[in-house]
Every structure is written in structure tokens, then in C-alpha cells.
Amino acid sequence: MSVIYLLITISIFVAIAFLIAFFMAVKNGQYDDDYTPSVRMLFDDELKKVKNEELKKLSNHKQTSNT
């Protein structure tokens, strides 16, 4: 019977330690944005296309202004 009391006590301390670790992670902002990283890879190609188009426009504008 004393083993059960010991195990319950240890499990309560472990649960409290995990709860404290969870609150510290939330306080440090670990769980602030969980949507963007999972979706960022889906839109990565589109962002590269937009950047390439902007660079082409800039280079075309520079070429026309230099001539």
C-alpha cells in the first residue's frame, strides 16, 4: 500500500513539473502562431514569383531610363 502512495506522490510532482513547463512555454510565446508555419510552404512559390516579377519590372525600368 505504501508503494501506491509513493507512486501517486511522484506522479503529482511530475504532473506539476509538466504544467509549469507548459505555462513557461506559453509565456515565452512558443504557441503564438501555429498556423503560418504550416501554410508558409504552400505559398512559398507564389512569393518567389512575385519577387521575380518585381525584379524584372525594376530591371526593365532601369534599362528604359538608361537609354
Write a short abstract of this structure:
The protein is 85% helix and 0% strand. It contains two helices and no strands. It is rod-shaped and about 90 Å long.
Commentary on this structure:
It contains 2 helices and no strands. It has 67 residues and is mainly alpha-helical. The protein has helices at 2-27, 36-66. The mean pLDDT is 82.
Q: Total helix count?
A: 2
The assigned structural class equals: mainly alpha
Strand content: under 5%
The portion of residues assigned to helices is over 70%
Shape: rod-shaped
Distance between the termini: 93 Å
Features of the shown structure:
0% strand; mainly alpha; 2 helices; rod-shaped; 67 residues
Write the layout of secondary structure elements.
Elements: H1 2-27, H2 36-66
